[in-house]
Amino acid sequence: MIIDGKAIAREVRNQVKGEIDSLKRKRGVVPGLAVVLVGDDPSSHLYIRNKEKACKEVGIESSEHLLPEALSENELISLIHTLNRDKAIHGILVQLPLPAHISTGRILQAISPEKDIDGFHPVSQGQLLLGGEGFKPCTPMGIMKLLDYVGCDLKGKTVVVVGRSNLVGKPVALMLLGRHATVTLCHSRTADLKGEVSRADILVVAVGKAGLVRGDWIKAGAVVIDVGANRLPNGKLAWDVEFEAAKERASWITPVPGGVGPLTICMLLFNTLEAARQSMKREG
Ligand code: NAP
To answer: Of 28, 36, 40, 203, which residue is 20 to 30 A from 173 by alpha carbon distance?
Structure first.
């Protein structure tokens, strides 16, 4: 069966909207998100437009900071410090990638962990490793939501994650481990990718290479989450997993687009709501 990410995302968004409406009504608090974009990358502009549209739909107040490519690292850090102090801003999103002259690590570390709704700050990532409280990255959260939605019991299951990026592979592996799955994390130097994949009850692929995972590698009845979104030279989108063949073997499989992508934005909305709630708690 195909996992309908769009329908699941609609449901999550409605839930988030309901909670934001109630926060506004009962406490007069409007969750605020600052979106920071440096440079003119057209894909980044499209991503932030989509994020802002989603914010508007659920009642999050988003403010845009569109900055020139030539901005210095110190100027960007100074803006982030201002946003860290702004009580109307509960979450800060710096759209990546940043221009080469700016250190992504320094910028992400400048964001207060209390406003780190992308979950990229070392404190948030450390909390995830330790199984503590903290914001978690949105794409891995979306993957967990999809697995829960299709009723996937993770306890004791053999899960294979292909790709070990800090954005997707590593955090999702930790989240799955936290839910008592037995997790194998594969990468470009894995000796026998086919062998690892074919053991998986649940397979998560986040690589960015069209057709890397062949359909006939999939274990019969496996749940397959394909994060890969690959733009081919002819402009079409392609999957990391060979979808047509894989869907004949999987019990559940995500499409691209319409699988993980819609959930990623939802989780950003959810984390911004959560940041607003936590700020209210701190203020009593
Ligand atoms: P990334 O940082 O480029 O990481 C790719 C990972 O794949 C690396 O760990 C790499 O291994 C591994 N890899 C490369 N070639 C491999 C091979 N032949 N066999 C096994 N593993 C291999 O990418 P990412 O940021 O995680 O993103 C992955 C994909 O997900 C991309 O297509 C991206 O567009 C998509 N994505 C989608 C969403 C969404 O919301 N839909 C969000 C994020 C990402 P090494 O570590 O050994 O180099």
So the answer is: 36
